[in-house]
Amino acid sequence: MEKYVGFYQTEDPNITVEVLEHNGRLALNIPGQPSLIELYPPDGEGKWYIRANPSIAISFNISEDDEVISFTSHLPDGTTFIRPRIRDDK
Q1: What CATH architecture does domain 2-87 belong to?
Q2: Quick one: how far is CA 31 from the chain centroid?
Q3: Please, which pLDDT band fits residue 87 given cuts at 50, 70 and 90?
Q4: Distance CA 15, CA 30 (A)
Q5: End-to-end alpha carbon distance in the chain
Q6: Distance (Å, rounded) from C-alpha 83 to C-alpha 79?
Q7: Domain residue spans in the chain?
Q8: For residue 56, what is the enclosing H or E element?
């Protein structure tokens, strides 16, 4: 899970999403949300579903060098949003 931890940019340049480990799971820290958003482990397609709303998932995009470069949000209506990684947690 460590390789996914870091900060990802939204369409608003002033808002970043933090992916972190929480209670042995991946979670999202999204500004404006009242608490962390925990994720289920990935399914066979590599999608990490949101525990509180399993109709929404994210998947991580990996470069040829095995580096996480972004994640994609998958919404129930089929809409997707790519969130580029801007830095890791260091």
Answers
A1: Beta Barrel (2.40)
A2: 13
A3: confident
A4: 8
A5: 15
A6: 13
A7: 2-87
A8: strand 53-62
